[in-house]
């Protein structure tokens, strides 16, 4: 196995990780920004007001994209398993 192949596999793994994490984190960041603007405009400094909506949106996002999430992971794992003979030889 050459270093180029290792770097390519690592690059693909990082791409999948960044894609999946960003799909989960981005809606929570957007809701957190909206809540922070609301808190700044109304001078409300309640910590749970910013935490609970982000938690609920993150959970809802995970429920909605669960099938895509796992199909992406399974697709990457299948590509990796299929390419094992090429990686070794």
From TrEMBL:
Topological category with respect to the lipid bilayer: Multi-pass membrane protein
Domain of life: Bacteria
Gene Ontology BP term (one): protein secretion
TM regions (residue ranges): 12-39, 51-70
Membrane as UniProt keyword: yes
Keyword Lipoprotein listed: no
Main location as per UniProt: membrane
Compartments, as annotated in UniProt: Cell membrane
Keyword annotations from UniProtKB, A to Z: Cell membrane, Cell projection, Cilium, Flagellum, Membrane, Transmembrane, Transmembrane helix
Signal sequence, start to end: none
GO CC annotations, alphabetized: plasma membrane
Family the entry assigns: Belongs to the FliQ/MopD/SpaQ family.
Entries under PANTHER family matching the protein: FLAGELLAR BIOSYNTHETIC PROTEIN FLIQ
Protein name: Flagellar biosynthetic protein FliQ
Source organism per UniProt: Aliikangiella marina
């Amino acid at each position: 196995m050459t270093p180029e192949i290792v770097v390519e596999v690592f690059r693909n793994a990082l791409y999948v990780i960044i894609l999946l994490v960003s799909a989960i984190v981005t809606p929570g960041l957007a809701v957190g920004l909206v809540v922070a603007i609301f808190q700044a405009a109304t001078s409300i400094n309640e910590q749970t007001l910013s935490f609970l909506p982000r938690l609920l949106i993150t959970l809802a996002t995970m429920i909605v994209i669960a099938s895509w999430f796992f199909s992406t992971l399974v697709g990457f794992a299948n590509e990796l398993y299929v390419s094992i003979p090429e990686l070794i030889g």
